[in-house]
Amino acid sequence: MEKLRYFDHAATTRMDEEVYLSMLPYLSENYGNPSSIYSLGKLNKEAINVSRMKIANSINCKPEEIYFTSGGSESDNLCVKGIALANRRRGNHIITTKIEHHAILNTCKFLEYLGFRITYLNVDSKGFINLKELERAINRNTILISIMMANNEIGTIQNMNEISKIAKKYRVYLHSDCVQAIGNIKVDVRKLNLDAISVSGHKFYGPKGIGFAYIREGIPFMRIIDGGHQEKDKRAGTENVAGIVGIGKAIEIADKNFDKNIVKLTNLRNYYIANLVNNISDIKINGDLERRLPGNMNVCFRGVDGSILIQELDSRRICASSGSACSAGFLNPSHVLLAIGVNERLARGSLRVTFGKDNEIEDVKYLVESLIEIIKRIRKA
Question: pTM for the complete prediction?
Answer without folding.
Answer: 0.95
